[in-house]
UniProtKB/TrEMBL annotation:
Signal peptide: none annotated. Residues 54-143 form the Methyltransferase domain. It comes from Bordetella genomosp. 4. The lineage of its organism: Bacteria, Pseudomonadati, Pseudomonadota, Betaproteobacteria, Burkholderiales. The keyword Signal does not apply. It holds the Pfam family Methyltransf_25. It comes from the Bacteria. This is SAM-dependent methyltransferase.
């Protein structure tokens, strides 16, 4: 059965509450994660001279916002958990928008890149086409989307208090291409390990739809 509006609201609110309740624990546990490969996959594929305007989609406590800002880019965070919004603003000094992924309000043709590190997997598959359709219009023509999500066999559901959808590359590719992107690259993380020890699917995409023409 499709999720109703009430179902989707419950999924969103319970997932956000999970992060609200564990905000300090999450910040401490992820502070030293090395995502330099992911940041490079975004920045190295943006065309034109820097600095770039970057949307950190699901910025959490602001770890990667600080990296983008330190490199001279204009970084803006987007986050649904209010405690993370406060943390990210305080730690990075960047502008951070408080928005639910299921109710986005993004400017048109504004960003050079969108960085969605460990965030889009929280979108129920039913809503993924609608959510992804917002992204190419928010990018300048030729802009880049980076996404990293825990991979799976296209299952979804609750996992330790959070809702997640776990796509394989074929499924993920289909959704992102249908939203108006072409694939630049994909890889699995952590690097250098056997595939069964690489739980993360990372990918970079170039927007092919002109601003305002997303389906």
């Amino acid at each position: 059965m499709p999720f109703s509006a009430d179902d989707l609201n419950l999924i969103s609110q319970q997932t956000l509450r999970h992060y609200e309740d564990r905000a300090e624990e999450f910040r401490a546990g992820t502070l030293d994660h090395d995502v330099s490969q992911n940041i490079a996959a975004l920045l190295d594929n943006i065309q034109g001279p820097p600095p770039y305007r970057i949307l950190d989609f699901g910025c959490g406590p602001g770890r990667d916002l600080r990296v983008f800002a330190a490199r001279g880019h204009h970084a803006i965070g987007l986050e649904g958990a209010s405690r993370f919004v406060e943390m990210a603003r305080e730690s990075s000094g960047c502008e951070v928008w408080h928005q639910d992924f299921l109710a986005l309000n993004l400017p048109t043709a504004y960003f050079d890149g969108i960085y969605a590190n460990a965030s889009l997997f929280h979108v129920p598959t039913q809503e993924l086409p609608r959510v992804l359709a917002n992204l190419p219009a928010a990018l300048k023509i030729g802009g880049v989307l980076f996404a990293s999500n825990p991979r799976g066999a296209n299952e979804e559901g609750w996992n330790r208090g959070r809702y997640g959808a776990y796509h394989d590359i074929d499924s993920w590719r289909r959704y992102v291409e249908n939203a108006g992107f072409t694939e630049i690259t994909h890889y699995y993380r952590p690097a250098g390990l056997p595939r069964d020890q690489q739980p993360w699917l990372a990918s970079a995409w170039r927007a092919t739809l002109s601003a305002g023409s997303a389906p």
